[in-house]
Design brief:
The structure holds two protein chains of two kinds. By secondary structure, chain A is α/β, with parallel strands linked by helices. Chain A contains eleven helices and ten strands. In chain A, 30% of the residues lie in helices and 20% in strands. Chain A has an eight-stranded mixed β-sheet with strand order 6-3-7-2-8-1-10-9, with helices on both faces. A two-stranded antiparallel ribbon of chain A has the order 4-5. The longest helix of chain B has 10 residues. Chain B is globular and about 40 Å long. Classes of the chains: A alpha/beta, B mainly alpha.
Chain lengths: 310, 119
């Protein structure tokens, strides 16, 4: 029986294995290319150019269905849609019963609003802040393709989404960005937060973005499949090695915008321990190595980092 | 100096968008950011010069916008994630803008891609 640091806002629970506590049962890494959302809305599932992408998500969607996952914690970034550089948060957590899906200039998407859970989001927020992650909170803001592009490939939205989303936005646009190590530690703090929530919920964490791509300057179109494979290998078996890379290393190895893969490190921190990879799809069609990976928690590392006692 | 970004500019064809750049180009980036609102798009299309004036763009920036110099905009410090919102107004796809930034024709750029038919 392990006692863990608790947020003062909740009733102390003696046992983390208790079935009435929330738990993280798996993790997903996924690209968030905007054209995935566009192709989805235009029902291009069977288009020969798109089919390898859509088919690559089916085993993940099926697993989420079978496991009856209640909540997805999404580490994503806002692409100057709801936030602008005049006030651009390094980390920000969304609180709300629902979030509109952003119109990014192409008109509203034919999807229901993303569902939220204020009690769960508020608990995670309190736990993070008491754990010295002084994260910004946002409310009543639309969520853009950083989350909404892959979401309908993971969860069916007919008649409505089967669960709730905890959106956590990370600055990967305006340097200084949080370090890879900091993102990993954010993930660890999210794990402590979720696992101290006294409601029986099955939670999956999602890291978005990547893999290799560059979409600005003369180096646009850069890819590096060899590095992408190495990244996936390290993410699974030696994520701490990835936390030692600088942003410049990610930019050199995977292209400028691949630095957003630090959001996958946040996901990995939230499932610290041994993972079992259940599925992987890699499709480099034009400029972004579109990737979808599903991991199940095989052996929980337990309270690897005790965090900061409140 | 940000130790995390040292070496990026040396890669070539890659521009670090940090807060110093952002501070210098805030008005230009806000001008593009506003393009997600239909009222702003309509105002821009109705009177480009007036829209640029009201946004407080410098003469140099106005010239980049008038010429739709995509690479010049990025080199000046426009962030691509707002530049792409302007590309929608200019009725160009991202793939077309990518080709221009590489200094290639669209057709030649597509030949370098594995699945050029992906739309």
């Amino acid at each position: 029986m392990v006692w863990r640091p608790q947020s003062p806002s909740i009733v102390i629970q003696p046992c983390r294995e208790s079935s009435d506590m929330a738990r993280i049962i798996g993790a997903i890494g996924t690209s968030h290319v905007p054209t995935i959302g566009l192709a989805y809305d235009r029902k291009k599932h069977d288009d020969p150019a798109w089919a390898p992408l859509f088919k690559g998500y089916e085993p993940i969607a099926q697993w989420l269905r079978e496991k009856e996952v209640d909540a997805l914690v999404f580490f994503y970034n806002d692409h100057c849609t709801s936030f602008f550089f005049d006030l651009y948060p390094t980390f920000a957590l969304g609180v709300g019963d629902s979030f509109a899906i952003a119109d990014e200039g192409a008109g509203p998407r034919p999807l229901p609003a993303i569902r939220g859970d204020v009690a769960l989001q508020s608990h995670i927020l309190e736990s993070l802040v008491n754990d010295e992650f002084d994260i910004t909170v946002f409310q009543d803001k639309a969520i853009d393709h950083g989350c909404a592009s892959p979401l309908p490939l993971l969860w069916s939205h007919e008649p409505d989404w089967p669960g709730v989303v905890v959106p956590i936005a990370i600055n990967v646009l305006q340097y200084p960005l949080p370090t890879g190590r900091r993102c990993y530690r954010l993930g660890q703090a999210v794990k402590r937060a979720v696992e101290s929530y006294p409601v029986d919920l099955k939670v999956v964490v999602v890291g978005t973005g990547g893999l290799s791509h560059q979409i600005h300057g003369e180096r646009t179109g850069f890819n590096n499949t060899e590095w992408d494979m190495e990244f996936l290998e390290l993410l699974e078996h030696d994520p701490v090695a990835l936390t030692k890379l600088r942003h410049a290393d990610y930019v050199r190895l995977g292209g400028a915008e691949s630095v957003e893969q630090i959001m996958w490190l946040a996901m990995r921190g939230a499932v610290d321990g041994t993972l079992k990879k259940l599925h992987q799809n890699y499709y480099l069609a034009t400029t972004t190595a579109m990737t979808a990976v599903l991991y199940e928690v095989a052996q929980d590392a337990g309270p690897v980092d005790e965090g900061v006692a409140p | 100096m940000n130790l995390q970004t040292v070496g990026i500019e040396a890669l070539g064809g890659t521009y670090v968008f940090d807060v110093r750049v952002s501070n210098r180009t805030l008005k230009l980036n806000r001008f593009f950011w506003n393009m997600i609102a239909s009222a702003w798009r309509e105002a821009y299309l109705a009177n480009t010069e007036q829209a640029m004036d009201s946004a407080g763009l410098s003469d140099f920036e106005k010239d980049l916008v008038r010429r739709q110099d995509w690479l010049g905009l990025v080199q000046h410090g426009a962030n691509f994630f707002v530049v792409e919102k302007f590309a929608r107004v200019a009725r160009l796809s991202n793939m077309e803008v990518y080709a221009i930034m590489r200094g290639q024709s669209y057709e030649d750029f597509l030949k370098t891609r594995r699945v050029p038919g992906l739309r």
